[in-house]
Amino acid sequence: MRKLVVILCISLFSLIACSEETIEPKDPKDDLNAYVEAWERLDFNAMQSLVLASDDASTLTEQYETAYDALGTTDVAVSITDEPQLDRDPDRDEYVVDTNDYTYTLTITQNTLVGDYSFDTAITLTPVIETIDDTEQVTHYQIIWDKGLIIPPLKDGGEIKQIVTEPIRGNIFDRNGEALAVNGEMREIGVDTGRFVDRATEIEFISKALDMTVDQIEHTLSQSWVQDGLFIPLKRVSVTEEEKLAQLNEIPSVLSTASYGRVYPEGETMSHLVGYVGTVTAEDLENDEDGIYSDGDMIGKRGIEYIFEEQLRGEDGIRLVVDNNGNRTGIVEQDPVDGEDIHLTIDRKVQSTLFNQFVEGDAGHATIIDPKTSETLALVSYPSFDPTLFTEGMSQEVYDGLNNDPLTPLLNRFQSTYSPGSVFKPVTAMIGLHTGSFTPTDTLDIDGYTYNQPSFGNYEVRRVSLSDGPVDLHDALVRSDNIYFARQALNIGAENFLTTSQLFGFNNDAYTFSYPIRQSQVANDETLSNDVLLADTGYGQGQVLVSSHHLAMMYTPLFHNGNMMTPILLKGETSEILTEHVISEADVTALRQALYDVVQNGTATIAKSDTVTLSGKTGTAELKQSASDENKQENGWFVGYDDESRYLITMMIESVESKGGSRYPAEKVRQAFEALVN
């Protein structure tokens, strides 16, 4: 019996000892690791189950989702970089409840809208103590959570905001670095209603000076925030408009402040080429699939500003901040990328000289290229407009005046195509020479002023002068003989004509230009379907349509040993050969001699100058409603170049029937050369 009691006591003691030995101290890092793993999975619900209950922690999931959505965070990496010393005594025999909190250091790296964001933070775990079998034990640890664990700047509250930093728009320069479109100083014109002396009179004057209506100004002044003593902005004015600014400064109620905006120093001279910027419209935003623009942003609306919008605009910078009742703390930011500058081959002075050849009442366009390099030096459309009207706003009356002007100043003519008339004859000549259909010395016997053949029906080709004998290429160019070129087009043949025209950039995808100009054409459907159309095409009528710029490039074989070149507009580019050996060097010599004689004793003697030696070709395009139309409109053309091949100018002026026909643009081209080379 005594032996049994001893055995029972020993067994009971062993059971108690074994029970105490099974209570192992909890490691807070185990619970921290579970929290970290949930964090890296973006499992906010799991994270919330591991934190100590509190008012903040009760909405942990919603707070993380809101913050990460604002930050653009989709990936998080968390590492434990510093650990506390746990209160553990290896020599202690009995289990002791550890009531200590333990703080670890974490390094968090997460992606955001503008790049990675990293921060170090302290995280504290507190023990959860429960009584099990009458013994208090630490069953696990919970995170003591606050908003600062999302990101430190949120610790004291606030919300995450995105602040967009606009880039500086790139400038547009000419070949010599002269400004064509820049971000320059302006004056913001406004009023202080408390300074009105004669309100009605002053507003009337201001409305006229700023091209605004009285109603527009009154609407601005009627806003709820307007009060005496405040500056109420109305419109920006370029500092170059000194006279206007001086007049406005005389008005008692007018105030002005320094501002910056898009400035176009060359005004209407460059407006069709350079274009302008304007505020984005609802349509712009609807077409903005990449979400680049916001209300109030500026965007290229026309010309180079529009064509090179992607390069000029740059990229917005974004600054992520915590805004706590107006107090902002930065999180991470991406600097804006300023727009690229665009450098054109255009020469500001050359452009101005060409533009100034046009006078009030003219409507037309012109191009100047450097025939040796194929660089575009000037692109002019006339009449034109002040681009500042579109960037800074104009009254409906001013806009209606531009839009309803019969000379259509808003139409970019150099971007369009027109019937070229006889300036196309050298191109027909080169097509014929290339195909071997004739040589410069081959002649045609032509009698009288008209030509007809059975396939024409009642149609006749007419020429303006008679020849003394058989007509060769030289004589046909000097006298501008329509019948010669009509018959040679028939000799070339429709298929040959169309195929060879591709060598000059017609219907040829390899012929490109940085400024989108309507593609020239030989025929409406690229089919010369009958002999009348083919014959008319030979002397630049029919359905032939060209731009002044493409026409200039068609003459480049005369400067490059018979090679047709590609055009360039951007400085730093190099022209390439579009087609090698369109004509032979001997043919080049023959054509250049003929075009020289056109000016010396042919149809373009008005282009003869005492100060510069010119060669060229006149052309008159007749625009008829029908073959019997007596009230036809005539567009006059001239293509000219100087003997040193410094410039090649093409010019077209509409409605020259009462201005001397093609002599009118020929004289203007001569005057342009005299101004440029002297």
From TrEMBL:
InterPro entries: Beta-lactam/transpept (IPR050515), Beta-lactam/transpept-like (IPR012338), MecA_N (IPR007887), NTF2-like_dom_sf (IPR032710), PBP_dimer (IPR005311), PBP_dimer_sf (IPR036138), PCN-bd_Tpept (IPR001460). It is an enzyme of class 3 (hydrolase). Pathway: Cell wall biogenesis; peptidoglycan biosynthesis. GO terms for biological process: cell wall organization; peptidoglycan biosynthetic process; response to antibiotic. Residues 365-672 form the Penicillin-binding protein transpeptidase domain. It is found in: Membrane. Residues 165-328 form the Penicillin-binding protein dimerisation domain. Its main location: membrane. Pfam families: MecA_N (PF05223), PBP_dimer (PF03717), Transpeptidase (PF00905). Belongs to the transpeptidase family. Residues 1-19 form the signal peptide. Its EC number is 3.4.16.4. GO terms for cellular component: plasma membrane. This is serine-type D-Ala-D-Ala carboxypeptidase. It comes from Halolactibacillus miurensis. GO terms for molecular function: penicillin binding; peptidoglycan L,D-transpeptidase activity; serine-type D-Ala-D-Ala carboxypeptidase activity. Keywords: Membrane, Signal. It comes from the Bacteria. Residues 28-156 form the NTF2-like N-terminal transpeptidase domain.
